[in-house]
């Protein structure tokens, strides 16, 4: 009975421990407190900066090459700059002509593709440590050269994976920033990648960041998805029909 009549301040304090969402904010009269207003404006500015930030592709490519021990395939979407990328999502889903010509087809189990997406800072902060956790679990896979794409969206992985001749494609991409997470990394998994694949044919692992899914957790989950996708030769909604495999020993 006492919990029903818990003081609002105490209840708000307990809720704030459980979530980064803005809950039970204090007030001064009918207005928000200055500290809460400034915190909101700061979060909004960080989200805007993340969307407009330019990927430091050269330094990231060198970092990824050191991790993989192989040269990184530098690619670019058909969106020539950030402004075009934000205004023309369709151009971010396909390669430009020079990039298309540079992709050499092979026979690979898996293509790993890194794209800036809507948060370049997420990619710069999280891709390298995440791959350091993931790659040892992929020792038995035939991995295509890692691709790094500027001004790319999720669907660009379909064209890249198909051009490389990979059975599976994973796109590691900066997700749309929120007011509590400007640097969230996502992993999108597609079996038999090819232009025209829909989001219903993918699986996604989201919120890879310090305040979300850890690198170890995300790598383990992705490895499970990849092995099950390879076994069943599919991804997307159909793969989620048997969610119990994620918890199998």
Overview of this structure, please?
With 249 residues, the protein is α/β, with parallel strands linked by helices. The protein has a single domain (52-247), classed as Rossmann fold. It has helices spanning 8-18, 34-52, 57-68, 82-87, 97-102, 120-134, 156-164, 215-232, and strands at 27-28, 31-32, 73-76, 108-115, 147-150, 166-174, 185-191, 202-208. Helix 6 crosses helix 8. The N and C termini lie far apart (41 Å). The model has no long low-confidence stretch (mean pLDDT 89).
Spell out the key features of this protein.
single chain; 249 residues; alpha/beta; Rossmann fold; six-stranded mixed β-sheet; 8 strands; globular
Strand and helix layout:
Elements: H1 8-18, E1 27-28, E2 31-32, H2 34-52, H3 57-68, E3 73-76, H4 82-87, H5 97-102, E4 108-115, H6 120-134, E5 147-150, H7 156-164, E6 166-174, E7 185-191, E8 202-208, H8 215-232
Parallel strand pairs: 3-5, 4-5, 4-6
Antiparallel strand pairs: 1-2, 6-7, 7-8
Helix pairs in contact: 3-6, 6-8
Tally of helical segments: 8
Shape: globular
* Structural domain count: 1
Helix fraction by DSSP (H/I, runs of at least 4) = 25-40%
CATH level 4 superfamily: Ethanolamine ammonia-lyase light chain (EutC)
Distance between the termini: 41 Å
- Are there runs of 5+ residues with pLDDT below 50, and where? none
Average of pLDDT: 89
Strand numbers in spatial order across the main sheet: 3-5-4-6-7-8
Structural class: alpha/beta
Number of beta strands: 8
Outline the biggest β-sheet: 6 strands, mixed
Approximately what portion of the residues adopt beta-strand conformation? 15-25%
Radius of gyration, in Å, reads 20 Å
Second CATH tier, the architecture: 3-Layer(aba) Sandwich
The SSE order reads: HEEHHEHHEHEHEEEH
CATH topology: Rossmann fold
> In CATH's first tier, which class applies?
Alpha Beta
């Amino acid at each position: 009975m006492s919990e029903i009549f818990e003081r609002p301040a105490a209840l708000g304090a307990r809720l704030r421990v459980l979530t980064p969402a803005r809950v039970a904010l204090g007030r001064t009269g009918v207005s928000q407190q200055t500290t809460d207003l400034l915190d909101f404006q700061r979060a909004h500015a960080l989200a805007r900066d993340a969307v407009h930030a330019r990927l430091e592709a050269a330094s990231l490519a060198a970092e990824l090459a050191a991790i993989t021990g192989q040269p990184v395939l530098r690619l670019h979407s058909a969106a020539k700059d950030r402004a075009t990328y934000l205004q023309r999502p369709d151009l971010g889903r396909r390669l430009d002509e020079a990039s298309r010509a540079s992709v050499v087809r092979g026979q690979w189990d898996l293509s790993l593709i890194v794209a800036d997406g809507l948060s370049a800072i997420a990619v710069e902060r999280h891709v390298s440590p995440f791959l350091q956790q993931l790659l040892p679990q992929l020792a038995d896979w035939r991995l295509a050269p890692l691709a790094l794409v500027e001004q790319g969206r999720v669907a660009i992985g379909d064209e890249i994976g198909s051009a490389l001749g990979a059975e599976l494609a994973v796109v590691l991409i900066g997700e749309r920033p929120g007011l509590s997470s400007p640097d969230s990394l996502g992993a999108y998994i597609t079996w038999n990648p090819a232009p025209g694949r829909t989001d219903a044919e993918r699986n996604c692992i989201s919120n890879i960041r310090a305040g979300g899914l850890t690198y170890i957790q995300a790598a383990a989950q992705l490895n499970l998805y990849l092995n099950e996708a390879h076994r069943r030769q599919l991804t997307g909604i159909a793969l989620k029909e048997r969610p119990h495999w994620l918890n199998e020993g």
